[in-house]
Amino acid sequence: MNIFNKTRLIFSFFLTIISFCAYSQANVFKVTLDAGHGDHDFGAVYSGRIEKNIALAIVLKVGKILEDSPNINVIYTRKTDVFIDLVERANIANRANSNIFVSIHCNANKNTAADGTETYVMGLSKVASNLEAAKKENSVITLEKDYKRKYEGYDPNSPESMMAMTLMQEEYLDNSIALATKIEDNFDRLGKKLRQGGVKQAPFMVLHKAYMPRVLVETGFVSNPTEGNILNSEEGQNDIAKAIAEAIISYKREYFGSGVPEIADARPVKDTAKPKTVATPPANKNTPKGTVFKVQLIASIKKTPLEPKNFKGLTNVTMLYENNIYKYFYQETSDYQAAQKYLQEAKSKGYGASFLIAYKDGEKISIQDATK
Ligand SMILES: [Zn+2]
Fold first, then answer.
1. MurNAc-LAA domain: which residues (predicted)?
2. How far is the CA of 24 from the centre of ligand 1 (A)?
3. Residue 41 Cα, ligand 1 centroid: separation in angstroms?
4. pTM, whole model, 2 decimals?
5. Range of the domain at 130
């Protein structure tokens, strides 16, 4: 073998390794687990049941299960009893380019009969009890130095005030609801141990600052003697951790992997927290025949007039009202290449979370099916 061939062989060997590494990196699903509170921030405390300790114990158990599953990388905001700012918790997930962010807490109420799990997605709520939970969890920012400047004057007693900080809060809402639904469904499978409170929406600061599908799990009420004792027990924590970890693994299977970039994987979300709601069907009058692609810009609980100035100058924006949520789409084309160009355009305008969706004869289908 001459030196030229040898060099070429070595070169292609390294190229193979590099592309293999790039491939496996792209196929690793990154989960940031956030154990609420820590150190001098105890969270809720009732009869020796301490939220910060329970949250950490559950997080470590969830993490252990995930670490034992293939192609999952677990990032922890804390693995010990330390205090971490809310914004830093979110930033740990942001810096890691995490695929999902899961914050784990316990609920509490003066009424010690209150019970049940609740899994929250980010968003504005008019429901007093949802706002109460957010207010309680957000109030820990007052333990941080200089919180007024850091949180842009946000008043933790008024969770609604957060909504004024940024418009269009509900990026990643579809995926967040899908993950939250899986977690709550798994809690339901624990039988009578924990009452399933369901998926809810409220403005949590820690979710607000994380730029990925994200949920906050209130794993039950430490204030309730029966539920609190389950939360404080090894067995109870194992059950809860298993339920959360399996939901995450199921979410990964459905929304990530199989070699298809996650961004292209926009399957319809199954029943959300409000199945009673009648979805307004899309304007079916002139449903295009065949396959069409659209760019989903955002999902929002707010109705926004379809003017370019409301969509960073983008024209041809359409809207669909589904499960209490307004979805806004950019363009419509039967050409996949063109659709990808539109997607890039949307991203360059600042819609970083936008993704492609596809319809066949008016029915939503996966991008994989659409491009077959
Ligand atoms: Zn908490």
1. 90-249
2. 35
3. 9
4. 0.68
5. 26-255
